[in-house]
Design a protein that fits this description.
2 copies of one chain form a homodimer.
Chain A (H helix, E strand, L loop, with lengths): L20 H8 L3 E5 L2 E4 L1 H20 L3 E3 L4 E3 H4 L14 E4 L5 E4 L4 H8 L11 E10 L14 E11 L2 H21 L6 E7 L6 E8 L5 E6 L4 E4 L5 H6 L8 E15 L1 H6 L2 E3 L5 E3 L1 E7 L1 H11 L1 E2 L2 E2 L10 E5 L4 H16 L4 E4 L6 H11 L3 E5 L1 H5 L3 E5 L6 E3 L1 H9 L3
Parallel strand pairs in A: 3-7, 9-12, 19-20, 19-21
Antiparallel strand pairs in A: 1-2, 4-6, 5-6, 7-8, 8-16, 9-10, 10-13, 11-12, 11-13, 13-16, 14-15, 17-18, 21-22, 22-23
Chain lengths: 419, 419
């Protein structure tokens, strides 16, 4: 894509009303637009990142047998009353609204009850189990405060998968697979090395749930990390009983601030009991379906990555989720240089390499470099009179301080190398 | 995908509370699930159709220079008051809700004002124009009645593109391109032959808007079609003045019921004036940006296709938007037949052909045929003892009454032929 065509522009000034680093950088670089506190639009660069994150998640969910659907935001009292989640004193983040006939509706804060109710149409026998169903869908949460940029929003996208199993044993086998799939997701998204499976409160129906916590000073949670074992404990269950259960020692644990980028949760039969999602076993016995839920917010993940992978010049995107792989800059207005840059753009494009081409002619070299650092695309390639007289193009990785001059063959090798 | 894996099932009975054909067939066949009146979830088969429709639209919007974004559902009074669209007596389909601090919010019924306000950050000079920005996003409309299945919903996805031009002339050139892109979309989706560009009321700022109306008895609109010229007039502007302006004669026009599957609309400077989206011309003059809007609802398009392309057995999907290209059925429990069918499934899959494989062994041949007709995949391929002894597989198009036996080479040729 040519940058002269892109409608967004970078901003020199930081937005006055943002205290979070992720919102500040993403707004300055033109990835998102703030509609109001906790409510952000995604601009072309931001949407490209979100779609790459979605695709990683989708591939991992499909690989463990997930089937994709889309449920609805508008929700009915009759769905959430049986699970005791409708009243505002039970779930205090509902946005409520009304039909013309005064029927009260809510905007889904989550979808466990809705999907449990829906699955009653499709599950009746042991032969229908297990099943795994997921969606990417907007959640609405009426948060009192929303100051963490896209890490905590009033309107945000969530991937939520629900598992429906015959019994706890079948559930546990899938739960382990989901755990591995989640590790793959954070690894592929570039934050695997600072993201820990974290033991957290399991609620009424299981001893623990598992959170995926990424270490960052911007996090709202406190966790205790055992580096050697590669696991952590959330402060909420950090006590002697749990330590001994997990065979962890206080002296091996380091306290960190962290943000929860995903969680997996055993629901047991809480929802299936309340909404009567039952199946007949092989011997004709009626049993409640055993459930689990598995969530990741693509926007929160994107915000977290910006918090942990940036420097004073801007964002440093991991290659798998960068909006483009290459930021091609042409410097100066020399006709020959422009022709060479255009040729290179066409050549790389035709090889399926994703390029943002800064073809603007009314911007200085310094501004182009600053924009490129702010936007944070992994490879910067410069075409200038000097680079051409030096024998090619200057290529520099965003994470490295200096670049080098390469010829076309070397550039193509570098950019098409499978990591 | 194997049908034994798919969690949805067809239903024998029609839903009791649906009066529309599209909802009846789509629910029976397992494409959608009704959450409440006018609010439907998309199940795996339905979501596959929606994504194919989205991709056709996306390709056509990108081809005319569109850049994709995602705006938000939650909307603020300050955005919609300047355009006089906030009060319930001005726009009567708002769902309104509230923040904890009692600030009133609305759920977007459309996004003209929101995008106009956003573009103020990015447009200031003639050099920034023209620009074309679109999204696929959920709209919420508090309709009094919702009885048309997925053709008129309270919550539904819409592709809306907005054009920002320097002046009417530049706008008109893009408007014509959008018109052609829309024709391509409906043609590619399989209803081009019964969809007419229809002159409709233009509101205060232009003589006409243009609707894309598909002829169907289920339509809520009345249009007058000139078959020879391939255009139509909406009843709302069907008068002598308009007829003479368009050089049409009453005797050439045929009255039809139709459903509006898309519309393109000149907004002129209504929104840019109200929200002060201005730019500086080459001579430093300040002018309002000239705007247009261009909408298509993927769900409504899907519902319309089901209304017009179905028979008494079920849906007949056009190939470009069918959930799968091939419905492979294995009949009987003979081990050799099962092995042959599995081999064929793997072979076709490896060639990138999208297949739903009815591998269920607890279902009769009659039930499999009935399901296949109901679901409506373009090609049905049967593997049975008989087909194998006849020398291959029975292939039948959904739109044709009978099939024929073909060998593997012929089958592959047939299924990989570019239409």
């Amino acid at each position: 894509m040519k940058q002269s065509h892109l409608f967004t522009k970078t901003k020199k000034e930081s937005p006055a009303d943002e205290v979070s680093l992720n919102a500040e950088l993403l707004i300055k670089a033109g990835f998102i637009n703030k509609e109001m506190a906790g409510v952000y639009s995604y601009l072309p660069l931001g949407l490209r990142v979100i779609k790459k994150i979605e695709n990683i998640i989708r591939e991992e969910m499909n690989a463990i047998g997930g089937q994709e659907v889309t449920l609805t935001a508008l929700q009915d009292k009759s769905t959430w009353e049986p699970t005791d989640q409708w009243a505002d004193d039970k779930v205090d983040v509902w946005f409520k609204t009304k039909l013309k006939n005064e029927t009260e509706l809510g905007l889904a804060v989550t979808h466990e009850a809705a999907i449990t109710k829906m699955m009653k149409s499709f599950i009746s026998s042991y032969r229908d189990l297990p099943k795994y169903v997921y969606q990417f869908q907007t959640k609405f949460r009426n948060e009192v405060r929303a100051k963490s940029g896209i890490m905590r929003c009033r309107e945000f996208e969530m991937k939520d998968l629900y598992s429906f199993s015959k019994n706890e044993e079948e559930h546990n086998a899938f739960y382990e697979k989901a755990n591995e799939a989640y590790k793959n997701i954070f690894k592929r998204a570039g934050i695997g090395h600072i993201t820990y499976v974290t033991f957290a409160s399991g609620g009424m129906f299981s001893k623990f749930s598992h959170e995926f916590q990424t270490i960052t000073a911007a996090g709202e949670d406190t966790i205790y990390v055992d580096e050697n074992k590669g696991i952590a404990i959330n402060k909420e269950v950090y006590n002697d009983e749990v330590l001994s259960l997990l065979d962890l020692k206080r002296e091996d644990l380091v306290e960190n601030k962290a943000v929860e980028v995903g969680n997996i949760f055993t629901l047991s039969t809480r929802f299936s009991d309340a909404l009567e999602l039952k199946y007949k076993t092989e011997v004709g016995e009626e049993k409640s379906v055993f459930m689990g839920s598995y969530g990741i917010g693509p926007g929160r993940l994107m915000g977290t990555i910006v918090e942990v992978l940036s420097d004073d010049k801007g964002i440093i995107w991991p290659e798998n989720i960068a909006p483009f792989k290459v930021h091609l800059l042409v410097l100066g207005g020399d006709d020959n240089v422009l022709v060479e840059a255009e040729k290179l753009y066409q050549d790389l494009n035709s090889r399926g390499i994703e390029i943002l081409f800064d073809d603007r002619t009314d911007i200085s070299a310094g501004e182009k470099f600053a924009d490129s650092d702010l936007i944070g695309i992994p490879y910067r390639v410069v075409v200038s009179k000097r680079s051409l007289s030096d024998g090619g193009y200057e290529v520099k990785k965003r994470i490295e301080p200096t670049g080098k001059i390469v010829k076309i063959e070397e550039l193509i090798n570098l950019l098409t190398l499978k990591v």
